[in-house]
Design a protein that fits this description.
Layout lengths: L19 E2 L3 E2 L4 H19 L13 E5 L5 E5 L11 E2 H23 L1
Antiparallel strand pairs: 1-2, 3-4, 4-5
Bound molecules: flavin-adenine dinucleotide.
The site of flavin-adenine dinucleotide has 9 residues, from helix 1.
Length: 114
């Protein structure tokens, strides 16, 4: 439910939380975690204010996506438990894909703010 264990009236998300899901175990400290988990916590808070039941987080990773400088990177699919699969993309192609991911994140946040 994303609540603090010691202070259940407090929701904990992002890098400040050690959140777990059944599929993935303990979640990474990553923006790939912080955004969906933060959004889920927000929905749960609204649900509680409306007298509805908060829902447990259902979440898994599909890919690990890293940039290593501007011209190198790593894209690697992962299993539901976040363990890496064999396929990897590296070099400029991976750096390009990662840049598109970052750009689309910024676009999505701008749209959400509107
Ligand atoms: C160099 C670097 C590269 C990274 N690359 C990736 C990546 O490629 N992919 C990925 O998934 N993740 C990446 N991460 C990790 C990702 O940035 C974090 O996991 C994510 O931002 C965590 O989100 P958050 O909301 O928990 O915290 P943050 O994004 O750190 O947000 C916390 C906010 O709280 C504010 N704040 C702090 N103290 C106070 C206070 N007292 N009062 C009010 N506000 C306060 C801060 O200013 C900040 O805006 C990277 C991190 C770093 C440092």
């Amino acid at each position: 439910m994303l609540r603090s264990v010691s202070h259940p009236e407090i929701y904990a998300v992002g890098d400040a939380a050690a959140a777990r899901t059944e599929a993935s175990g303990e979640l990474r400290m990553a923006c790939a975690t912080a955004m969906p988990v933060g959004s889920h916590a927000g929905k749960n808070i609204v649900a509680e204010l409306r007298g509805e039941e908060p829902k447990p987080l259902s979440f898994r990773y599909y890919v690990q996506c890293l940039s290593i400088g501007r011209r190198n990177g790593l894209i690697q699919p992962v299993s539901a438990d976040d363990s890496p699969k064999r396929t990897i993309i590296t070099g400029k192609t991976a750096a390009f894909v990662k840049e598109q991911v970052v750009r689309s994140t910024v676009r999505t946040l701008r749209l959400a703010a509107r």
